[in-house]
């Protein structure tokens, strides 16, 4: 795989937490693939969580070329994702009821694509510096989104379809842009 760390994780039992520290994961996988790559050089997480209840995906990625692709379906799905430096990208898809996602991206080419389909959706996002962007689609009955971006190429596209929409978007500096659509 050209030194690119990847993982697919299925959770099949009820209330099984998933914790992956991609810094340690990337080190062990990259060390086997190439002795020249260090911890956090090329991090990736691909997680598919099948239809069950109460899954939690807790993901922490620290350095370099980060990427996370998380898919959950069922009832009571939770995602907590922390990406730190360089080329972070995150794709989160939650299908079902009563899910939430908390995503924190820090510096460089930040990007988040999130789909929550079901009821009682929530999102808290914080992005910090350089090419920030967020594309959030929530479809359900009690949608909530809180997005905060700090600096540089900021952009948000938020679509909420359902009943109890709420949105709080805060952008601080540079190229700022917001697009919010709420409808029944």
Automatic annotation (TrEMBL):
Pfam families: Curlin_rpt (PF07012). Keywords: Signal. The keyword Protein biosynthesis does not apply. One of its GO terms (biological process) is cell adhesion. Residues 1-33 form the signal peptide. One of its GO terms (cellular component) is pilus. It comes from the Bacteria. Belongs to the CsgA/CsgB family. This is PPE repeat-containing protein.
